[in-house]
Design brief:
Serine Threonine Protein Phosphatase 5, Tetratricopeptide repeat; globular; 12 helices; 329 residues; alpha/beta; Glutaredoxin
Length: 329
């Protein structure tokens, strides 16, 4: 791991599981060019798929001129944005790592590399106070990824989660190397209740989305996607409430009251949403190990919901399950 240069960004600047982030990109938007008919194309790519420098396969060097095109493209394919600077020793490694990893996803992601010295407005819009920093765009909304250096397995895990969130919001296209490629339908049409839930998520109505998922589970209790969706919108709804709170005060409250259930659950939500999965899950496991009675059961149920949010195949969930078994038995 390498450290970012300058002071780190506060951890709750935005919510990576919600596309209703706090960052306002409107000041950077220029009048978009009319969309080309047919397949999505990377900004800077010539017609017919012939890329012009500085475009490389699935990578775009971001400028003021092409940024809005990338915002538009993020409605079809998630765009990973690497913010770098020549004064940051780790920047080049992070951009190279992201380029290699993004290429391996074969068009499901696009990488945009932004020199914050040449385009300082972008760093300001993303509230970046340290470089290198990686964020993503999904439907034009910012999704924080990481600051400083990151090991390849960590980056892949974050990008896997990014694709899940993007897919849940109807962003599941694909572009080809060099900038041209058909947007490929990834799946059959959604079941009606799932479609209803996704439309409610887009509208920011998490309660309606949760109701749709609950109905889906009543009709088909083994519907794992509905179960995961219900857990995700539950987290989104709680984070919407926490978005107006003083997160530093919440963390101080949790530190001062390790047996304060509400404080521990709130900070666990912030940790999971901020990508600190082990910290968030471990916090609740530790609470369960110290407490008994109704509060312990409430914490256990929340922990299981967060397992669904992160994904049962995630190594961090497997580790937390083992730790949970130890404290329960």
């Amino acid at each position: 791991m390498t450290s970012p240069v300058s002071r780190p960004v506060p951890p709750a600047a935005a919510n990576p599981l919600s596309l209703r982030g706090a960052v306002d990109l409107s000041a950077l938007k220029q009048r978009p060019a009319p969309p080309a008919a047919g397949s999505p194309q990377l900004p800077g790519a010539a017609a017919g798929g012939e890329a012009e420098p500085p475009v490389r396969p699935l990578r775009v060097d971001i400028t003021e001129a092409n940024f809005q095109e990338l915002v538009e493209l993020s409605a079809q394919v998630p765009v990973v944005v690497a913010l770098w600077a020549s004064y940051s020793p780790g920047s080049a490694d992070v951009v190279d790592t992201l380029e290699r990893i993004v290429d391996s996803y074969e068009g499901q992601l696009v990488l945009g590399a932004a020199d914050v010295e040449a385009f300082p407005q972008l760093a300001q819009a993303f509230q970046v106070q340290a470089v290198p920093t990686a964020v993503a765009l999904v439907k034009g909304q910012p999704v924080p990824l990481f600051q400083g250096g990151a090991e390849e397995p960590q980056v892949r895990s974050l990008l896997d989660e990014l694709l899940k969130v993007a897919g849940a919001n109807g962003v599941a296209g694909r572009v080809g190397a060099g900038g041209a490629g058909a947007a490929e339908p990834e799946a059959a049409p959604l079941p009606p209740l799932h479609q209803k839930a996704y439309e409610a998520i887009e509208a920011g109505d998490f309660a309606a989305a949760a109701d749709a998922y609950r109905q889906a589970l009543l009709e088909m209790p083994a519907d794992s996607e509905a179960k995961t969706g219900l857990a995700q919108v539950g987290l989104m709804d709680r984070l919407q409430v926490l978005s107006s709170a003083d997160t530093e005060a919440l963390r101080q409250k949790a530190a001062a009251g390790p047996d304060n259930l509400e404080a521990q659950l709130e900070v666990a939500d912030l940790d999971v949403a901020g990508g600190h999965i082990e910290d968030g899950l471990g916090r609740i496991v530790a609470f369960i190990g110290r407490n008994f009675g109704p509060e312990r059961e409430t914490a256990r149920i929340r922990l299981l919901e967060l397992f669904d949010v992160v994904g049962p195949a995630d190594d961090r969930v497997a580790k937390a399950r083992q730790n949970l078994a130890r404290v329960l038995f």
